[in-house]
Amino acid sequence: MTLHVTGEVLDTKRTGAYRHLTLVAPGVAERFRPGNFVAITLADSARLARRSYWIHQVRPVGGYGPALQLVVEPVGGGGSWLAGLPVGSKLELTGPLGRPFALPKEPVSCLLVGEDHSAAPLFPLAERLRERGCAVTLLVAGRDEAHLLSALEARRSARAVTVVTADGSVGQRGRVADVIAETLGRARAEVVYAAGRHDTLHAVAAAAEDHGAWSQTAVELPQPCATGLCHGCALPVVGEDGVARTVRACTEGPVVRGDRVRWGELA
Ligand SMILES: Cc1cc2nc3c(=O)[nH]c(=O)nc-3n(C[C@H](O)[C@H](O)[C@H](O)COP(=O)(O)OP(=O)(O)OC[C@H]3O[C@@H](n4cnc5c(N)ncnc54)[C@H](O)[C@@H]3O)c2cc1C
Ligand code: FES
Known about the structure:
This protein is an alpha/beta fold. It has helices spanning 76-83, 122-131, 151-157, 176-187, 198-211, and strands at 3-15, 18-24, 37-41, 51-54, 57-61, 65-72, 90-97, 109-115, 135-142, 160-165, 172-173, 191-195, 214-218, 234-238, 244-248, 255-257. The chain has 5 helices and 16 strands.
């Protein structure tokens, strides 16, 4: 069930290029599954569209119960506003939203691929998979060290971690597409989960298919309402019947099977 609540900023911390916000949002954290997101209503009547943010963590905060953590890149109108909120600020949010990542029934080997801020939903996913006995390998990518999300934490949540940065400031220099085939082979992954730019997701989905693995991709598209009403988040897919159609990324996604997306039609 999705709730619309008034949240409160309990903590705000700069980490690299990002701002990590801890929010109390009554009822939302309790209903969270990895891959869910929240939609934030901006306190600016000139910007009507909501902004979607992955739920990065759910942790108990003394006196408040479970709280949400979001990773906000302070760019653009929405991101700058949200990242600049001081502790104690109130904000309107809707969540949890979206179809979460599907968990495997068997304890299989899983590769999780996250790029820039989009790596946020993969950390709670790694925890859930480990609880189910899955072997978790992480591939974390960023533009540079500052945009590499929680690299230290990644080492705690996975059996093996590969780090790539576009500028080579930490880990291997390169992009996900350069290392995905080799990483998939090394991890012997049967299931691949990915969140990042569209071209990265396309590369991961294609490599997974070549490797005979099942992929789930978290596709970020602008979501003016985020609740399924406006149809402004069209995601081109091929249905189970083989027929091309569009689905709403906010409700039928944002996590969809990688082999079902018509990647060439995404900008
Ligand atoms: C499922 C999902 C999860 C996301 N998770 C994160 C996250 O964890 N961390 C993070 O930093 N970002 C995340 N984003 C991106 C985030 O929602 C914003 O789009 C991003 O922060 C840029 O918005 P802005 O307001 O800062 O930029 P602006 O400069 O205000 O917007 C840039 C342009 O895009 C348009 N636009 C931006 N967002 C929307 C929207 N929601 N609907 C319609 N038009 C829009 C604006 O109108 C403008 O034309 C996520 C997006 C999606 C869809
Ligand atoms: S954003 Fe409105 S239907 Fe998806």
